[in-house]
Design brief:
The protein is of the alpha/beta class. The protein has two domains: 150 residues, 3-Layer(aba) Sandwich (Rossmann fold), CATH 3.40.50.1000; 57 residues, DNA polymerase, domain 1. A six-stranded parallel sheet has the order 3-2-1-4-5-6, with no helix packed on it. Strand 4, helix 8 and strand 5 form a beta-alpha-beta unit. Helix 1 packs across helix 2 and helix 2 crosses helix 3. The chain is globular and about 55 Å long. GO terms for molecular function: hydrolase activity. InterPro entries: HAD-like_sf (IPR036412), HAD-SF_hydro_IA (IPR006439), HAD_sf (IPR023214), Pyr-5-nucltdase (IPR010237).
Length: 229
């Protein structure tokens, strides 16, 4: 059994946004999830139950429901993103401990997300983390090809001149760490802390024992603080 990769060589720190930079139990994604269902229901003129099935089928098959709706039903990305990210961000609270831990990491800090820059900006503002990141690579920068598509990571690495063998990736979905690990990145899976209920699909919470997951944490701020020490 191979030992997990370490962080001593890392000079670029790459973070997913949703359910990674804020706790799973905030269930902010649940709001987005509901808005996606409404969009699918309205666009396709199907029942909420049928919309839910299609939404989750597209999510698994295409990486995001949006990609499925674009590919199969001609949806415009701008319309979709504007609708599904119109949510209440007030459940998010400032996290100065996380900000301090991120600030102490040596090198660049980047965000790689299947969401939009507007959504990133709103989330970071609520968390008090807006000044801690050097750049954001969102679904628009990815040409609307979501993680875990290999070309999305490759474009991200090229656009930001990231050497994957000197980078670490933090994610809440194990499947989104497969390609980063293959490329040489140190991978960290961020999981719920187990103290409060989270609204997630079972498959979304799988993978903590996967070979492509180097580390697992339920406390990102604490994990990063130990690294910076």
């Amino acid at each position: 059994m191979k030992s997990p990769r370490t962080f001593t060589h890392v000079d670029t720190w790459v973070f997913d946004l949703d359910n990674t930079l804020y706790p799973h139990h905030v269930n902010l994604w649940q709001q987005v999830d509901a808005r996606i269902g409404e969009f699918v229901c309205s666009w396709l003129n199907v029942t909420p139950e049928e919309a839910r099935k299609l939404q989750k089928d597209y999510y698994r098959r295409f990486g995001t429901t949006m990609r499925g709706m674009m590919t199969l039903h001609g949806v415009r990305a701008d319309d979709y993103l504007a609708y599904v990210h119109k949510i209440d961000h007030s459940p998010l609270e400032p996290n100065p401990a996380l900000g301090e831990a991120i600030a102490k990491l040596p090198g660049r800090k980047l965000i790689l997300t299947n969401g939009s820059v507007d959504h990133v900006d709103a989330v970071l503002a609520r968390l008090g983390l807006a000044t801690h990141f050097d750049a954001v690579f969102d679904i628009i920068a990815a040409g609307f090809e979501p993680k875990p598509a290999p070309q999305t990571y490759e474009k991200f690495l090229a656009d930001h001149a990231v050497d994957p063998t000197r980078a670490a990736m933090f994610e809440d979905l194990a499947r989104n760490l497969t390609v980063p690990h293959e490329l040489g990145m140190t991978t960290v899976l961020v999981v719920p802390d187990g103290t409060q209920e989270v609204v997630r699909e079972d498959w979304e919470l799988e993978g903590r024992d996967a070979a492509h997951v180097d580390h697992v944490t339920d406390d990102l701020a604490g994990f990063l603080a130990k690294l910076s020490r």
